[in-house]
From TrEMBL:
It comes from the Bacteria. It comes from Rhodovulum adriaticum. The keyword ATP-binding applies. It is found in: Cell inner membrane. InterPro entries: AAA+_ATPase, ABC_transp_ATP-bind, ABC_transporter-like_ATP-bd, ABC_transporter-like_CS, Oligopep_ABC_C, P-loop_NTPase. It is a peripheral membrane protein. One of its GO terms (cellular component) is plasma membrane. Belongs to the ABC transporter superfamily. This is Peptide/nickel transport system ATP-binding protein.
């Protein structure tokens, strides 16, 4: 009897909690059904983390949606194959009513963008209790205390207050923690995490990944991780399946994949990963007249409240920032979300109200009307994070690249289209693509179109605001190569805004690190990234994932002092941090961290 029980126990442990066999998913197109996942098979073992890795369009997320019964029907459907749970339950072909019992109780999912997953008009507490009650995880009387326990489990600060808040009142990292709490509310056997950290800062990413590991250990949860970030794969995975165009390219234990990839595509993916500290030396650009000169820049947004809706406080988004950029030079602005990076970029283009001094190619922009700013805007252009949102879905991409030339009266007729054709060729696209619409292009191609549009007016400065953070690693490398090539040939100055320290290492000549609207450290790339002097910079660098499973990243350094807040009552504001030069060109903020008033 004892032997029988031992054998049964071993069988239970070795039996996969999820088995996918021969899965083929089709989507409807005008030309007929098209397979987006083809003959995919894998087993998910109890307690392990299996990563589905690959570029956009490889079928990773469609596989997850099929497992969860969330394929957008009738546009997408499972054409063939089997998806079975440990007890033999078949999921393929089940209806919505059956899946309501399986979701949350057996399988839960964390989606990429928590803001689109959470209900904006419901408090966090109500959304948690709704899940608990819908799946009969507790009684209505127990639900509030259980919701509070869930928030504490995911290490949210001041959990009691968070229950009463709405999603927009939380940071990105907090919203993702709420999504994890909701996913784990019913203690599922399997947790599917679909790009759970792509949109997060490097420090928040490290915290969320560590949280998933801790919860996995405590609850014995099996994790199916979907990502295109090979640093996350190295840090989280036990096994990896590399997908390409819906097909299984390679399957291997994570150490084997990184040590000796068996396919050319896997090798290309690993080669494209930016690695902190391995970027080649960049020759220092010739210092000449600065094309960007910013002095004592301040950006403050009013906050209204009370019965009369008066301004009661201000968000000090940027507070006393100064910097310069020369032609052919890249200054990288780095820091966590909310530190003021993107606000500076928008201020340079006159898209937000500001105080201080901004000179573009020697021309002062303070106090100019929109009409007065128009000729200056020819010299400074912006490339935004999301190329899909930057392009008009109703216009051909050729017309969108031509539009700046028409608005500024620089070309018309055949000359206009000759210049547009030249711009398309310049960014690696072909003239026959000019008549297509944005949805007909991949993410990398759309970003190339945005770069072509930014180059149309022959600018001297380009503000690149998280311009590669949404791209796959191989496409990201191609776009970064294009930006470098353009800079060398055109002498462009870049203000490169990013939270990805490894990408910053690839592109920057100088780096400025921001926290709560102020620069806390600035210097050459090697000074800031190789020899950081400020505690905040060291903390950012300690959180960078290392794309090597043989190397265990040490814990993220603790934050020095209080978190602080950019919101101050009207008439008050943060103390300016004095800067000291600790080496030629290497400046570091002195004094205590910012305190909350």
């Amino acid at each position: 009897m004892t032997a029988d029980r031992d054998n049964a126990g071993r069988e239970e442990t070795s039996r996969p909690v999820l088995s996918v066999q021969g899965l083929t998913i089709q989507v409807a197109t005008p030309e007929g059904p098209k397979p987006v996942v083809q003959d995919l098979s894998f087993d998910l073992r109890r307690g392990e983390t299996l990563c589905l890795a690959g570029e956009s369009g490889s079928g990773k997320s469609m596989t997850a949606l099929a497992i969860m019964g969330l394929l957008p029907q009738p546009m997408a459907r499972i054409a063939s194959g089997s998806i079975r749970l440990a007890d033999g339950s078949e999921l393929a072909g089940r209806g919505e009513r059956d899946f309501r019992d399986i979701r949350a109780n057996r399988i839960s999912m964390i989606f990429q963008e928590p803001m689109t997953s959470l209900n904006p008009v419901m408090t966090i507490g109500r959304q948690l209790t709704e899940v608990l009650l819908e799946h009969r995880a507790c009684t209505p009387a127990e639900a509030p205390s259980r919701a509070l326990d869930l928030l504490r489990d995911v290490r949210i600060t001041d959990a009691e207050t968070r229950l009463k808040q709405y999603p927009h009142e939380l940071s990105g990292g907090m919203r993702q923690r709420v999504m994890i709490a909701i996913a784990l509310a019913c203690n599922p056997e399997i947790l599917i995490a679909d790009e759970p950290t792509t949109a997060l800062d490097v420090t928040v990413q490290a915290e969320v990944l560590e949280l998933i590991r801790v919860l996995q250990r405590e609850h014995g949860t099996t994790v199916l991780m979907i990502t295109h970030d090979m640093g996350v794969v190295a840090e989280m995975a036990d096994r990896v399946i590399v997908l390409r165009h819906g097909r299984q390219e390679e399957t291997a234990p994570v150490r084997n994949l990184f040590a000796a990839p068996q396919t050319e595509y896997s090798q290309e993916l690993l080669d494209a990963v930016p690695r902190l500290g391995q970027a080649p030396a960049r020759p220092a650009p010739e210092r000449s007249r600065d094309v960007v000169d910013v002095a004592e820049l301040c950006v403050r947004f009013p906050m209204r409240g009370g019965l009369l809706n008066r301004v009661t406080a201000q968000v000090h988004a940027v507070e006393g920032v100064s910097f310069r950029i020369s032609p052919g030079e890249t200054l990288a602005l780095v820091g966590e979300s909310g530190c003021g990076k993107s606000t500076i970029g928008r201020a340079l283009l006159g898209l937000v109200p500001w105080q201080g001094s901004i000179r573009i190619d020697g021309q002062q922009t303070a106090g100019l009307s929109p009409k007065g700013l128009k000729p200056i805007r020819r010299d400074i252009q912006m490339v935004f994070q999301d190329p899909g949102a930057s392009l008009d879905a109703r216009m051909t991409v050729g017309h969108q690249v031509a539009e700046p030339l028409v608005i500024h009266g620089l070309a018309s007729g055949s000359e206009l289209w000759d210049r547009v054709e030249m711009l398309f060729r310049r960014v690696g696209l072909t003239p026959d693509q000019m008549d297509r619409y944005p949805h007909e292009f991949s993410g990398g191609q759309r970003q190339r179109i945005c770069i072509a549009r930014a180059l149309a007016l022959g600018p001297k400065v380009i503000v690149a605001d998280e311009s590669v953070s949404a791209l796959d690693v191989s496409v990201q490398a191609q776009v970064l190569d294009l930006l470098r090539e353009l800079q060398e040939e055109e002498g462009l100055a870049y203000l490169f805004i990013s939270h990805d320290m490894a990408v910053i290492d690839q592109v920057a000549d100088r780096v400025a690190v921001m926290n709560l609207g102020q620069i806390v450290e600035t210097g050459s790339r090697d000074q800031v990234l190789r020899d950081p002097a400020h505690g905040y910079t060291r903390r950012l660098l300690s959180a960078v994932p290392i794309p090597d499973p043989e190397h265990t990243r040490p814990p993220v350094l603790p934050r020095e002092g209080e978190v602080g807040s950019p919101v101050w009552p009207l008439g008050q504001g943060p103390a300016r941090l004095p800067m000291a030069e600790i080496a030629p060109g290497h400046w570091v903020a002195q004094g205590a961290p910012l305190k909350v008033a």
